[in-house]
Design a protein that fits this description.
A three-stranded mixed β-sheet has the order 2-1-3. The protein has five helices and three strands. Helix 4 packs across helix 5. The longest helix is centred in the last third of the chain and has 17 residues. The two termini are 28 Å apart. It is mainly alpha-helical and 113 residues long.
Length: 113
């Protein structure tokens, strides 16, 4: 099955279930990020929130303790992971600025990704 066909099927399934193919993640400052649901599910925490009976299961998750710059880097990583996880070639290095390394580590630990 082609990737395009698989994506269409996933979108149709999401529409039938009443869910969007995207998830809205909101940072501490109120920055909104729309993330592909498949990519967001890389995070164990987000997956549990979307799958369970949580208020966030409607597709909008607010992270009161994660700054926008950190949440953006986490989102970049989940897209990176989806893109390069099935390749036979070594992926390029994922760049992390030293200034945000500790805060990013804490966010990644909380988000389980």
């Amino acid at each position: 099955m082609s990737a395009e066909l698989g994506e269409r099927m996933a979108n149709l399934q999401a529409q039938e279930e009443g869910t969007s193919p995207y998830v809205k993640l909101i940072s501490k400052e109120g920055h909104e990020f729309y993330v592909d649901r498949k990519c967001a599910m890389i995070s164990g925490t987000i997956k549990a929130m979307l799958s369970g009976g949580f208020m966030e299961s409607k597709g909008e998750i607010r992270f009161a303790e994660i700054r926008g710059a950190i949440l953006e880097k986490v989102i970049q990583y989940v897209y990176y992971k989806v893109r390069y996880s099935k390749g036979n070639v070594a992926p390029p290095e994922f760049e992390i600025e030293p200034e945000i390394a500790l805060e990013l580590l804490m966010a990644a630990n909380y988000l389980d990704c």
